Amino acid sequence: MRLRKLPPLMIAAGPVLLNAPETFSMTMEERMQAMEQRMLQLESKLEKSEQENADLKQQLAATQKVVAATAAAASKPAKAQNGQAEKAAQAGAVKELESWVGSFQQWPTEGFDPNKVTELHERLTTLEKTTEAQKVAAEEKAKKSTLTEIGDRGIAWSSADGNYKLALRGYLQADFRTFFDGSTKTKNPGSNLTDSALIRRARLTLEGQLFKWADWRVSPDFANSQVQLFDAFIDAHYIPEAALQVGKMRVPMSLERYKTATNLDFVERGYPAQIAPNRDVGAMLHGQIGYPGYKPQYSIQPVFRDWISYEFGWFNGTGDNTPVGQSDVEVDQEKDLAARVFSHPFLKSGIEPLEGLGIGVAGTWGNPINQTLNKLISVGQQTIFNYGGSGTNTSSVLANGNAYRYYPQAYWYYGPFGLLGEYLWTNHAVLATSTSGNKSTSYETSMNNRAWNLEASYVLTGERDGFFGIKPQNNFDPLAGNWGAFVLAGRWTGLTLDAHAFEPFKGANGKNATLANPLTSVSGANTFTAALNWYLNPFMKVQTDYSNTWFTGGGGTKDENRRQEQAWFTRFQIAY
User: Fold this and answer.
1) Model confidence pLDDT, tens digit, residues 161-211
2) Inter-axis angle of helices 14-23 and 83-103, to 10 degrees?
3) Distances (CA, A) of 576 to 13, 71, 168, 204, 459
4) DSSP string, 330-362
5) What gap in Å lies between CA 358 and CA 456, rounded to an integer?
Protein backbone atom coordinates (compact mmCIF):
# COMPACT_ATOMS: atom_id res chain seq x y z
CA MET A 1 0.00 0.00 0.00
CA ARG A 2 1.58 3.30 -1.12
CA LEU A 3 1.19 6.77 0.29
CA ARG A 4 0.34 8.34 -3.09
CA LYS A 5 -3.29 7.63 -2.19
CA LEU A 6 -3.04 10.37 0.43
CA PRO A 7 -4.82 13.21 -1.47
CA PRO A 8 -8.33 12.40 -0.12
CA LEU A 9 -6.93 12.62 3.40
CA MET A 10 -5.00 15.74 2.53
CA ILE A 11 -8.23 17.30 1.20
CA ALA A 12 -9.97 16.40 4.45
CA ALA A 13 -7.12 17.93 6.47
CA GLY A 14 -6.89 20.99 4.26
CA PRO A 15 -7.86 23.59 6.86
CA VAL A 16 -5.10 22.45 9.16
CA LEU A 17 -2.39 22.41 6.50
CA LEU A 18 -3.46 25.71 4.94
CA ASN A 19 -3.13 27.55 8.23
CA ALA A 20 0.45 26.26 8.81
CA PRO A 21 2.24 28.71 6.42
CA GLU A 22 0.88 31.67 8.33
CA THR A 23 2.81 30.48 11.39
CA PHE A 24 6.06 29.19 9.82
CA SER A 25 7.99 30.61 6.92
CA MET A 26 10.06 27.41 6.30
CA THR A 27 9.26 25.66 3.03
CA MET A 28 8.37 22.03 2.86
CA GLU A 29 11.66 21.19 1.14
CA GLU A 30 13.59 22.91 3.90
CA ARG A 31 11.52 21.08 6.48
CA MET A 32 12.24 17.73 4.83
CA GLN A 33 15.93 18.51 4.63
CA ALA A 34 15.91 19.38 8.33
CA MET A 35 14.19 16.12 9.10
CA GLU A 36 16.79 14.18 7.12
CA GLN A 37 19.58 15.92 9.01
CA ARG A 38 17.92 15.03 12.26
CA MET A 39 17.67 11.42 11.17
CA LEU A 40 21.40 11.34 10.48
CA GLN A 41 22.06 12.61 13.99
CA LEU A 42 19.75 9.96 15.40
CA GLU A 43 21.61 7.27 13.47
CA SER A 44 24.88 8.32 15.09
CA LYS A 45 23.37 8.35 18.55
CA LEU A 46 21.78 4.96 18.06
CA GLU A 47 25.19 3.38 17.57
CA LYS A 48 26.37 4.76 20.92
CA SER A 49 23.38 4.48 23.21
CA GLU A 50 20.52 2.09 23.75
CA GLN A 51 18.59 4.97 25.28
CA GLU A 52 18.67 6.88 22.04
CA ASN A 53 17.59 3.69 20.31
CA ALA A 54 14.47 3.77 22.52
CA ASP A 55 13.84 7.38 21.50
CA LEU A 56 14.02 6.44 17.83
CA LYS A 57 11.58 3.63 18.46
CA GLN A 58 9.11 6.19 19.81
CA GLN A 59 9.48 8.30 16.67
CA LEU A 60 9.13 5.16 14.59
CA ALA A 61 5.85 4.42 16.35
CA ALA A 62 4.61 7.91 15.50
CA THR A 63 5.56 7.45 11.85
CA GLN A 64 3.81 4.10 11.71
CA LYS A 65 0.65 5.66 13.06
CA VAL A 66 0.66 8.20 10.18
CA VAL A 67 1.24 5.48 7.63
CA ALA A 68 -1.60 3.45 9.08
CA ALA A 69 -3.91 6.46 9.13
CA THR A 70 -2.97 7.32 5.55
CA ALA A 71 -3.58 3.80 4.34
CA ALA A 72 -6.92 3.66 6.09
CA ALA A 73 -8.02 6.91 4.48
CA ALA A 74 -6.85 5.85 1.02
CA SER A 75 -8.70 2.57 1.17
CA LYS A 76 -12.09 4.13 1.72
CA PRO A 77 -14.40 4.31 -1.35
CA ALA A 78 -14.70 7.62 -3.10
CA LYS A 79 -18.43 7.65 -2.58
CA ALA A 80 -19.54 6.29 0.73
CA GLN A 81 -23.01 4.90 0.90
CA ASN A 82 -23.55 6.73 4.15
CA GLY A 83 -22.62 10.40 4.06
CA GLN A 84 -22.53 10.71 7.79
CA ALA A 85 -20.09 7.75 8.08
CA GLU A 86 -17.85 9.35 5.45
CA LYS A 87 -17.80 12.61 7.34
CA ALA A 88 -17.09 10.82 10.61
CA ALA A 89 -14.22 8.88 9.05
CA GLN A 90 -12.79 12.02 7.51
CA ALA A 91 -13.11 13.82 10.83
CA GLY A 92 -11.24 10.99 12.60
CA ALA A 93 -8.50 11.03 9.96
CA VAL A 94 -8.22 14.82 10.26
CA LYS A 95 -7.92 14.57 14.04
CA GLU A 96 -5.23 11.87 13.88
CA LEU A 97 -3.30 13.78 11.24
CA GLU A 98 -3.60 16.99 13.27
CA SER A 99 -2.03 15.21 16.24
CA TRP A 100 0.88 13.90 14.18
CA VAL A 101 1.41 17.14 12.27
CA GLY A 102 1.33 19.01 15.57
CA SER A 103 4.19 16.82 16.88
CA PHE A 104 6.33 18.25 14.11
CA GLN A 105 5.07 21.81 14.72
CA GLN A 106 2.65 21.88 11.77
CA TRP A 107 4.27 21.03 8.47
CA PRO A 108 3.63 23.48 5.64
CA THR A 109 1.85 22.08 2.59
CA GLU A 110 4.31 23.41 0.07
CA GLY A 111 6.48 20.66 -1.38
CA PHE A 112 4.93 17.90 0.73
CA ASP A 113 6.07 14.48 -0.48
CA PRO A 114 4.50 11.46 1.24
CA ASN A 115 7.18 9.19 -0.21
CA LYS A 116 9.68 10.89 2.11
CA VAL A 117 7.79 9.45 5.08
CA THR A 118 8.01 5.97 3.58
CA GLU A 119 11.73 6.40 2.93
CA LEU A 120 12.40 7.55 6.49
CA HIS A 121 10.36 4.65 7.81
CA GLU A 122 12.42 2.17 5.81
CA ARG A 123 15.68 3.76 6.95
CA LEU A 124 14.60 3.58 10.58
CA THR A 125 13.60 -0.06 10.20
CA THR A 126 16.98 -0.91 8.64
CA LEU A 127 18.82 1.02 11.36
CA GLU A 128 16.90 -0.80 14.08
CA LYS A 129 17.89 -4.18 12.64
CA THR A 130 21.51 -3.08 12.33
CA THR A 131 21.58 -1.85 15.93
CA GLU A 132 20.11 -5.11 17.21
CA ALA A 133 22.70 -7.11 15.25
CA GLN A 134 25.49 -4.95 16.67
CA LYS A 135 24.14 -5.48 20.18
CA VAL A 136 24.15 -9.26 19.74
CA ALA A 137 27.69 -9.13 18.34
CA ALA A 138 28.83 -6.97 21.27
CA GLU A 139 27.37 -9.45 23.76
CA GLU A 140 29.15 -12.35 22.09
CA LYS A 141 32.41 -10.41 22.08
CA ALA A 142 31.99 -9.57 25.77
CA LYS A 143 31.66 -13.27 26.60
CA LYS A 144 35.08 -13.88 25.04
CA SER A 145 36.77 -10.77 26.47
CA THR A 146 39.30 -10.88 29.32
CA LEU A 147 39.06 -8.90 32.54
CA THR A 148 42.31 -7.95 34.30
CA GLU A 149 42.60 -7.03 37.96
CA ILE A 150 45.68 -6.02 39.96
CA GLY A 151 45.38 -5.82 43.74
CA ASP A 152 46.44 -7.29 47.08
CA ARG A 153 45.51 -10.75 45.76
CA GLY A 154 48.04 -10.49 42.92
CA ILE A 155 47.42 -10.21 39.21
CA ALA A 156 44.23 -11.90 38.03
CA TRP A 157 42.67 -12.51 34.64
CA SER A 158 39.15 -13.80 34.11
CA SER A 159 36.69 -14.27 31.28
CA ALA A 160 33.57 -12.09 31.29
CA ASP A 161 31.33 -15.10 31.94
CA GLY A 162 33.46 -16.19 34.91
CA ASN A 163 34.20 -19.65 33.51
CA TYR A 164 37.96 -19.15 33.29
CA LYS A 165 40.29 -17.53 35.83
CA LEU A 166 44.03 -17.22 36.12
CA ALA A 167 46.00 -15.54 38.92
CA LEU A 168 49.66 -14.91 39.62
CA ARG A 169 50.79 -14.27 43.18
CA GLY A 170 54.11 -14.37 44.96
CA TYR A 171 56.16 -13.23 47.91
CA LEU A 172 59.74 -12.59 48.92
CA GLN A 173 61.18 -12.86 52.43
CA ALA A 174 64.68 -11.58 53.27
CA ASP A 175 65.89 -12.57 56.76
CA PHE A 176 68.64 -11.38 59.09
CA ARG A 177 69.67 -13.67 61.96
CA THR A 178 71.71 -12.65 64.97
CA PHE A 179 72.66 -14.90 67.92
CA PHE A 180 73.77 -13.80 71.39
CA ASP A 181 75.83 -16.65 72.82
CA GLY A 182 79.15 -15.11 73.89
CA SER A 183 80.38 -18.53 74.92
CA THR A 184 83.88 -19.96 74.64
CA LYS A 185 82.69 -23.50 75.26
CA THR A 186 83.43 -24.75 71.79
CA LYS A 187 82.46 -28.32 72.69
CA ASN A 188 78.91 -27.18 73.43
CA PRO A 189 76.89 -27.45 70.19
CA GLY A 190 74.99 -24.28 71.12
CA SER A 191 78.12 -22.11 71.04
CA ASN A 192 79.54 -19.86 68.36
CA LEU A 193 76.40 -19.77 66.24
CA THR A 194 76.78 -17.95 62.94
CA ASP A 195 74.98 -14.69 62.21
CA SER A 196 73.64 -14.61 58.68
CA ALA A 197 71.50 -12.93 56.06
CA LEU A 198 69.52 -15.06 53.61
CA ILE A 199 66.57 -15.27 51.27
CA ARG A 200 64.17 -17.38 53.32
CA ARG A 201 61.46 -17.69 50.67
CA ALA A 202 61.05 -16.54 47.06
CA ARG A 203 57.83 -18.14 45.98
CA LEU A 204 55.51 -17.79 43.02
CA THR A 205 51.98 -19.16 42.91
CA LEU A 206 50.12 -19.67 39.67
CA GLU A 207 46.52 -20.74 40.10
CA GLY A 208 43.36 -20.83 38.06
CA GLN A 209 39.79 -21.99 37.70
CA LEU A 210 37.97 -23.84 34.92
CA PHE A 211 34.19 -23.70 34.49
CA LYS A 212 33.80 -22.29 38.02
CA TRP A 213 34.25 -25.66 39.76
CA ALA A 214 37.76 -26.91 38.96
CA ASP A 215 40.66 -25.05 40.62
CA TRP A 216 44.36 -25.73 40.27
CA ARG A 217 47.57 -24.38 41.81
CA VAL A 218 51.31 -24.63 41.15
CA SER A 219 53.75 -23.07 43.67
CA PRO A 220 57.51 -23.30 43.10
CA ASP A 221 60.04 -21.69 45.44
CA PHE A 222 63.44 -20.31 44.34
CA ALA A 223 65.13 -19.50 47.67
CA ASN A 224 68.82 -20.38 48.13
CA SER A 225 69.18 -20.77 44.35
CA GLN A 226 67.21 -24.01 44.47
CA VAL A 227 63.89 -24.82 42.87
CA GLN A 228 61.44 -26.72 45.06
CA LEU A 229 57.83 -27.51 44.24
CA PHE A 230 55.64 -26.81 47.26
CA ASP A 231 52.14 -27.18 45.82
CA ALA A 232 50.84 -28.74 42.60
CA PHE A 233 47.24 -29.89 42.75
CA ILE A 234 43.80 -29.89 41.15
CA ASP A 235 40.70 -29.31 43.24
CA ALA A 236 37.27 -30.27 41.85
CA HIS A 237 34.50 -28.60 43.85
CA TYR A 238 31.18 -28.91 42.05
CA ILE A 239 29.54 -28.52 45.44
CA PRO A 240 31.27 -26.92 48.46
CA GLU A 241 30.17 -29.74 50.75
CA ALA A 242 32.34 -32.29 48.92
CA ALA A 243 35.45 -31.45 46.91
CA LEU A 244 38.25 -33.72 45.69
CA GLN A 245 41.83 -32.48 45.68
CA VAL A 246 44.62 -34.48 44.05
CA GLY A 247 48.34 -33.75 43.74
CA LYS A 248 50.98 -32.35 46.07
CA MET A 249 49.54 -30.39 48.98
CA ARG A 250 49.71 -29.62 52.69
CA VAL A 251 48.88 -32.64 54.81
CA PRO A 252 45.87 -31.71 57.01
CA MET A 253 47.71 -31.75 60.31
CA SER A 254 49.56 -28.77 61.81
CA LEU A 255 47.40 -25.70 62.45
CA GLU A 256 50.35 -23.31 62.30
CA ARG A 257 51.53 -25.01 59.11
CA TYR A 258 48.18 -24.14 57.52
CA LYS A 259 48.78 -20.50 58.35
CA THR A 260 50.42 -19.13 55.22
CA ALA A 261 54.03 -18.00 55.76
CA THR A 262 53.12 -14.40 54.89
CA ASN A 263 50.61 -14.30 57.77
CA LEU A 264 52.81 -15.72 60.53
CA ASP A 265 53.15 -13.60 63.67
CA PHE A 266 56.65 -15.01 64.20
CA VAL A 267 59.55 -15.36 61.81
CA GLU A 268 59.72 -19.15 62.29
CA ARG A 269 57.09 -21.74 63.25
CA GLY A 270 57.01 -23.59 66.58
CA TYR A 271 57.96 -27.18 67.43
CA PRO A 272 54.70 -28.96 66.49
CA ALA A 273 55.51 -28.29 62.84
CA GLN A 274 58.81 -30.13 63.40
CA ILE A 275 57.23 -33.48 64.25
CA ALA A 276 54.33 -33.30 61.80
CA PRO A 277 54.31 -33.92 58.04
CA ASN A 278 54.65 -30.96 55.67
CA ARG A 279 53.71 -31.60 52.02
CA ASP A 280 52.81 -34.95 50.50
CA VAL A 281 51.35 -36.39 47.30
CA GLY A 282 47.93 -37.96 47.37
CA ALA A 283 44.19 -37.38 47.19
CA MET A 284 42.00 -35.61 49.70
CA LEU A 285 38.24 -35.33 50.10
CA HIS A 286 37.29 -32.11 51.83
CA GLY A 287 34.28 -29.88 52.27
CA GLN A 288 32.50 -27.14 54.16
CA ILE A 289 29.20 -27.33 55.99
CA GLY A 290 27.38 -24.05 56.55
CA TYR A 291 25.70 -22.91 59.74
CA PRO A 292 22.00 -23.97 59.73
CA GLY A 293 20.17 -21.63 57.39
CA TYR A 294 23.33 -20.49 55.59
CA LYS A 295 24.98 -21.80 52.45
CA PRO A 296 28.62 -22.94 52.76
CA GLN A 297 31.31 -21.19 50.75
CA TYR A 298 33.99 -23.07 48.85
CA SER A 299 37.56 -22.31 49.88
CA ILE A 300 40.74 -23.64 48.33
CA GLN A 301 43.31 -25.02 50.77
CA PRO A 302 43.70 -23.85 53.48
CA VAL A 303 40.07 -23.96 54.57
CA PHE A 304 38.60 -23.00 58.01
CA ARG A 305 36.06 -20.43 56.82
CA ASP A 306 32.72 -22.08 57.61
CA TRP A 307 30.77 -23.64 60.44
CA ILE A 308 32.32 -27.09 59.97
CA SER A 309 35.23 -28.07 57.72
CA TYR A 310 36.53 -31.57 57.16
CA GLU A 311 39.49 -33.12 55.35
CA PHE A 312 40.20 -36.79 54.74
CA GLY A 313 43.27 -37.74 52.72
CA TRP A 314 45.19 -40.70 51.38
CA PHE A 315 48.90 -39.99 50.88
CA ASN A 316 52.21 -41.64 50.02
CA GLY A 317 53.36 -41.00 53.57
CA THR A 318 56.25 -38.81 54.71
CA GLY A 319 58.20 -38.55 57.94
CA ASP A 320 58.21 -35.72 60.43
CA ASN A 321 59.03 -32.42 58.70
CA THR A 322 60.34 -34.14 55.58
CA PRO A 323 61.95 -31.54 53.27
CA VAL A 324 59.59 -30.52 50.47
CA GLY A 325 62.08 -31.57 47.81
CA GLN A 326 62.07 -35.15 49.17
CA SER A 327 58.32 -35.69 49.38
CA ASP A 328 57.55 -36.14 45.67
CA VAL A 329 58.44 -39.84 45.41
CA GLU A 330 57.01 -42.85 47.23
CA VAL A 331 59.67 -44.81 49.13
CA ASP A 332 57.60 -47.87 50.06
CA GLN A 333 54.31 -49.53 49.23
CA GLU A 334 52.53 -48.30 52.35
CA LYS A 335 50.20 -45.30 52.48
CA ASP A 336 49.21 -42.84 55.18
CA LEU A 337 45.72 -41.75 56.13
CA ALA A 338 45.29 -38.21 57.40
CA ALA A 339 42.14 -36.48 58.61
CA ARG A 340 41.00 -33.32 60.31
CA VAL A 341 37.68 -31.87 61.47
CA PHE A 342 37.55 -28.19 62.35
CA SER A 343 34.57 -26.16 63.52
CA HIS A 344 33.54 -22.63 64.36
CA PRO A 345 30.71 -23.67 66.70
CA PHE A 346 29.47 -20.12 67.32
CA LEU A 347 29.79 -18.78 63.78
CA LYS A 348 26.70 -16.67 62.89
CA SER A 349 25.21 -17.47 66.30
CA GLY A 350 24.94 -13.83 67.28
CA ILE A 351 27.35 -14.31 70.19
CA GLU A 352 29.97 -11.94 68.82
CA PRO A 353 32.82 -12.64 71.31
CA LEU A 354 32.70 -16.37 70.42
CA GLU A 355 32.16 -16.21 66.65
CA GLY A 356 35.94 -16.24 66.10
CA LEU A 357 36.44 -19.45 68.11
CA GLY A 358 37.69 -22.41 66.11
CA ILE A 359 38.24 -25.92 67.50
CA GLY A 360 39.59 -28.94 65.69
CA VAL A 361 41.35 -32.26 65.89
CA ALA A 362 43.63 -33.94 63.36
CA GLY A 363 45.41 -37.24 63.09
CA THR A 364 47.42 -39.55 60.85
CA TRP A 365 47.97 -43.26 60.69
CA GLY A 366 50.45 -45.25 58.62
CA ASN A 367 52.76 -48.24 58.52
CA PRO A 368 56.03 -47.01 56.95
CA ILE A 369 58.72 -49.43 55.94
CA ASN A 370 62.34 -48.33 56.34
CA GLN A 371 61.42 -44.65 56.16
CA THR A 372 64.06 -41.99 56.86
CA LEU A 373 63.75 -40.16 60.17
CA ASN A 374 64.62 -36.49 59.76
CA LYS A 375 66.60 -34.20 62.01
CA LEU A 376 64.83 -31.68 64.22
CA ILE A 377 65.73 -28.00 64.41
CA SER A 378 65.24 -25.25 66.97
CA VAL A 379 63.26 -22.04 66.53
CA GLY A 380 66.66 -20.52 65.76
CA GLN A 381 66.96 -23.02 62.86
CA GLN A 382 69.83 -24.98 64.45
CA THR A 383 70.01 -28.79 64.43
CA ILE A 384 69.20 -30.00 67.94
CA PHE A 385 68.32 -33.68 67.38
CA ASN A 386 69.44 -36.28 64.87
CA TYR A 387 68.78 -40.00 64.59
CA GLY A 388 71.91 -42.14 64.16
CA GLY A 389 75.20 -40.67 63.08
CA SER A 390 78.44 -40.14 64.95
CA GLY A 391 78.58 -41.47 68.51
CA THR A 392 75.55 -43.77 68.25
CA ASN A 393 77.26 -46.99 67.08
CA THR A 394 74.44 -47.48 64.54
CA SER A 395 74.53 -47.65 60.78
CA SER A 396 70.88 -46.66 60.32
CA VAL A 397 67.81 -45.64 62.29
CA LEU A 398 64.54 -45.86 60.35
CA ALA A 399 60.81 -45.68 60.91
CA ASN A 400 59.52 -49.21 60.46
CA GLY A 401 56.04 -50.21 61.55
CA ASN A 402 52.96 -48.66 63.07
CA ALA A 403 52.96 -44.84 63.26
CA TYR A 404 50.27 -42.39 64.30
CA ARG A 405 49.82 -38.79 65.34
CA TYR A 406 47.08 -37.12 67.38
CA TYR A 407 46.72 -33.37 67.14
CA PRO A 408 44.07 -31.26 69.00
CA GLN A 409 44.13 -27.59 68.01
CA ALA A 410 42.19 -24.36 68.45
CA TYR A 411 42.24 -20.63 67.97
CA TRP A 412 40.18 -17.65 69.08
CA TYR A 413 40.07 -14.21 67.49
CA TYR A 414 38.02 -11.32 68.81
CA GLY A 415 38.57 -7.79 67.62
CA PRO A 416 42.30 -6.98 67.78
CA PHE A 417 43.09 -9.99 70.00
CA GLY A 418 44.12 -13.47 68.88
CA LEU A 419 45.01 -16.75 70.60
CA LEU A 420 46.24 -20.00 68.99
CA GLY A 421 47.13 -23.30 70.61
CA GLU A 422 47.99 -26.84 69.51
CA TYR A 423 49.39 -30.01 71.07
CA LEU A 424 50.85 -32.98 69.20
CA TRP A 425 51.41 -36.58 70.27
CA THR A 426 53.37 -38.84 67.92
CA ASN A 427 54.20 -42.52 68.14
CA HIS A 428 56.16 -44.50 65.60
CA ALA A 429 57.98 -47.81 65.58
CA VAL A 430 61.74 -47.55 65.01
CA LEU A 431 64.26 -50.05 63.67
CA ALA A 432 67.93 -49.42 64.45
CA THR A 433 70.72 -51.39 62.83
CA SER A 434 74.28 -51.72 64.09
CA THR A 435 77.01 -53.22 61.91
CA SER A 436 80.56 -54.24 62.58
CA GLY A 437 82.38 -55.90 59.71
CA ASN A 438 80.15 -58.69 58.47
CA LYS A 439 78.15 -58.76 61.65
CA SER A 440 74.85 -56.91 62.04
CA THR A 441 72.35 -56.54 64.87
CA SER A 442 68.91 -54.96 64.94
CA TYR A 443 66.99 -53.19 67.66
CA GLU A 444 63.30 -52.36 67.62
CA THR A 445 61.53 -49.87 69.85
CA SER A 446 59.07 -47.00 69.58
CA MET A 447 59.36 -43.26 69.95
CA ASN A 448 56.65 -41.23 71.70
CA ASN A 449 57.32 -37.53 71.16
CA ARG A 450 55.38 -34.44 72.22
CA ALA A 451 55.25 -30.83 71.03
CA TRP A 452 53.08 -27.84 71.84
CA ASN A 453 52.56 -24.27 70.79
CA LEU A 454 50.67 -21.45 72.53
CA GLU A 455 50.69 -17.96 71.06
CA ALA A 456 48.83 -14.70 71.62
CA SER A 457 48.68 -11.57 69.48
CA TYR A 458 47.26 -8.07 69.78
CA VAL A 459 46.85 -5.47 67.03
CA LEU A 460 48.04 -2.23 68.60
CA THR A 461 46.43 -0.05 65.93
CA GLY A 462 42.97 -1.57 66.42
CA GLU A 463 42.50 -3.62 63.24
CA ARG A 464 40.69 -6.94 63.46
CA ASP A 465 43.04 -9.87 64.05
CA GLY A 466 42.51 -13.19 62.27
CA PHE A 467 43.95 -16.53 61.23
CA PHE A 468 44.40 -15.27 57.67
CA GLY A 469 46.29 -12.12 58.68
CA ILE A 470 45.25 -8.50 58.96
CA LYS A 471 44.79 -5.59 56.58
CA PRO A 472 45.91 -2.12 57.73
CA GLN A 473 43.18 0.48 57.95
CA ASN A 474 45.67 3.13 56.86
CA ASN A 475 48.66 2.46 54.63
CA PHE A 476 52.06 3.83 55.51
CA ASP A 477 52.10 7.55 54.67
CA PRO A 478 53.90 9.55 57.39
CA LEU A 479 53.25 12.91 55.71
CA ALA A 480 49.54 12.21 56.15
CA GLY A 481 50.05 10.93 59.69
CA ASN A 482 49.55 7.25 58.78
CA TRP A 483 52.01 4.54 59.85
CA GLY A 484 50.27 1.31 58.91
CA ALA A 485 49.40 -1.39 61.46
CA PHE A 486 51.39 -2.86 64.35
CA VAL A 487 50.94 -6.29 65.94
CA LEU A 488 52.52 -7.40 69.22
CA ALA A 489 52.79 -11.18 69.78
CA GLY A 490 54.17 -13.64 72.30
CA ARG A 491 54.65 -17.42 72.15
CA TRP A 492 55.65 -20.42 74.20
CA THR A 493 56.53 -23.53 72.23
CA GLY A 494 58.08 -26.74 73.51
CA LEU A 495 59.35 -30.19 72.55
CA THR A 496 59.84 -33.42 74.50
CA LEU A 497 61.55 -36.45 72.96
CA ASP A 498 61.15 -40.04 74.11
CA ALA A 499 63.82 -41.36 76.47
CA HIS A 500 64.07 -44.45 74.23
CA ALA A 501 66.23 -42.34 71.93
CA PHE A 502 69.08 -42.48 74.45
CA GLU A 503 68.58 -45.92 76.02
CA PRO A 504 71.54 -48.12 75.14
CA PHE A 505 71.29 -51.47 73.42
CA LYS A 506 74.03 -53.89 72.48
CA GLY A 507 75.60 -53.10 69.14
CA ALA A 508 77.19 -55.45 66.64
CA ASN A 509 80.65 -54.79 68.06
CA GLY A 510 79.52 -55.60 71.60
CA LYS A 511 79.48 -51.94 72.66
CA ASN A 512 76.49 -49.83 73.59
CA ALA A 513 74.50 -48.25 70.81
CA THR A 514 71.74 -45.61 70.90
CA LEU A 515 69.18 -44.18 68.48
CA ALA A 516 70.62 -40.68 68.97
CA ASN A 517 73.82 -39.27 70.42
CA PRO A 518 73.03 -37.86 73.90
CA LEU A 519 76.03 -35.53 73.69
CA THR A 520 74.74 -33.67 70.62
CA SER A 521 70.98 -34.32 70.62
CA VAL A 522 68.64 -32.75 73.17
CA SER A 523 65.78 -34.51 74.91
CA GLY A 524 63.69 -31.37 75.32
CA ALA A 525 63.40 -27.70 74.44
CA ASN A 526 61.31 -24.73 75.58
CA THR A 527 61.30 -21.47 73.64
CA PHE A 528 59.77 -18.13 74.56
CA THR A 529 59.44 -15.52 71.82
CA ALA A 530 58.32 -11.89 71.71
CA ALA A 531 57.57 -10.36 68.31
CA LEU A 532 56.61 -7.05 66.72
CA ASN A 533 55.05 -7.00 63.26
CA TRP A 534 54.73 -3.82 61.22
CA TYR A 535 52.31 -3.90 58.27
CA LEU A 536 53.16 -0.89 56.10
CA ASN A 537 50.35 -1.79 53.69
CA PRO A 538 48.68 -4.99 52.46
CA PHE A 539 51.85 -5.85 50.48
CA MET A 540 54.76 -4.97 52.78
CA LYS A 541 55.60 -6.23 56.24
CA VAL A 542 58.55 -6.00 58.61
CA GLN A 543 58.91 -8.57 61.41
CA THR A 544 61.32 -8.70 64.28
CA ASP A 545 61.34 -11.17 67.17
CA TYR A 546 63.55 -12.26 70.00
CA SER A 547 63.62 -15.93 71.09
CA ASN A 548 65.15 -17.49 74.17
CA THR A 549 65.42 -21.29 74.27
CA TRP A 550 66.33 -23.60 77.15
CA PHE A 551 67.42 -27.15 76.27
CA THR A 552 67.68 -30.41 78.18
CA GLY A 553 70.75 -32.47 77.35
CA GLY A 554 72.85 -32.28 74.19
CA GLY A 555 75.54 -30.10 75.78
CA GLY A 556 78.60 -31.86 74.35
CA THR A 557 79.57 -33.64 77.57
CA LYS A 558 77.71 -36.03 79.86
CA ASP A 559 74.88 -34.48 81.87
CA GLU A 560 75.44 -31.06 80.34
CA ASN A 561 72.68 -29.12 78.63
CA ARG A 562 73.01 -27.46 75.29
CA ARG A 563 73.73 -23.80 75.72
CA GLN A 564 70.79 -21.44 75.90
CA GLU A 565 69.90 -20.12 72.47
CA GLN A 566 69.19 -16.40 72.21
CA ALA A 567 68.21 -15.34 68.72
CA TRP A 568 67.09 -12.06 67.21
CA PHE A 569 65.50 -12.50 63.79
CA THR A 570 64.30 -9.75 61.44
CA ARG A 571 62.36 -10.26 58.23
CA PHE A 572 61.51 -7.93 55.36
CA GLN A 573 58.60 -9.21 53.32
CA ILE A 574 56.77 -8.18 50.19
CA ALA A 575 53.76 -10.17 49.01
CA TYR A 576 51.29 -9.60 46.22
Assistant:
1) 888 999 999 999 999 999 997 666 677 888 888 999 999 999 999 999 999
2) 30
3) 76, 70, 9, 10, 22
4) --SS--EEEEEEEE-TTTTSS-GGGTTEEEEEE
5) 15
